[in-house]
Amino acid sequence: MVSPRNFDMDVLRTFVTGVRFGSFAKAAEALGRTPPAVSLQLKKLADVSGQTLFIKQGRGLALTDAGEALYDYAVRILELNDEAMMMLGSSRALDGWLRIGIPQDFAETSLPPVLGRFSRAHPKLRVEARVDRGAKLVAAVERGDLDMAVTWGGQRSAHCQHIATHPIVWIAAADYEVPSEDPVPLIAFDPPCSFRAAAVEALSSTGRDWRQVFASPGLAGLWAAVTAGLGVTIRTTAGMPPHLRSLDPERAGLPALGSVDLMLHTAEAVPAAPVSRLRDILLEMLVTPS
């Protein structure tokens, strides 16, 4: 009987981290390994899988079809591993309530599955999530209504830390062309909004006229207006619907927009165990090189 081959969990974690960061040198630094050690891990992974996982693309590497398939499996394997470790690794079960605020960009994509796995790993702990704009979430953390919140923009609180920096982009429908003479039709939240402020500042600094043609309290409304071709909006690509596209500012005749910080706020300087555990998971998931 032939023994089944098994993937090494540490090797899979290096593989997933490198793909997420877009650089195995940065993955090595994040994981506390040397680049030669990471190279050996990738060779081991290729040997165990029996497949070519990468091809050269310019100065970097791109996943092959086999690499893409393995990446999807590796993410699922690591999620199950981490869920089991969370459940079994504590000396006592976490219980009580954990209240978290999240931005709309992640509410329909990456964060709900994470919260679901966290809840399954700690069945005695009840998680309450609130989706809202950054200023309101920060205020809720400072009042003690939330234990933790993830926000975009420059809002600061007594206990906050920088997670990542993301480029701000112009987003439009696939076939939309920005008018060259008329004011730029802007689709955005009403103030206060870090993204709207970045767009208005960039347009004003270049003398380009603009007009807000659509406002909505929710991100779904903005995406619907962009899809309908009413104008352009400004966000990061996190959570951007696949049928929309980010514009090249120079080709579209628009100014560059800079970047925005992703921040994590906690109500306490030393959070309770459930908050601390979820904070560490969120930091691992959301961090990207700036």
UniProtKB/TrEMBL annotation:
Pfam family, one: LysR_substrate
Residue runs in coiled coils: none
Database matches in InterPro entries: LTTR, LysR_HTH_N, LysR_subst-bd, WH-like_DNA-bd_sf, WH_DNA-bd_sf
Molecular function as annotated in GO: DNA binding; DNA-binding transcription factor activity
Residue ranges occupied by any HTH lysR-type domain in the UniProt entry: 7-64
PROSITE patterns: HTH_LYSR
Homology family: Belongs to the LysR transcriptional regulatory family.
Annotated protein name in UniProt: LysR family transcriptional regulator
Species annotation: Shinella kummerowiae
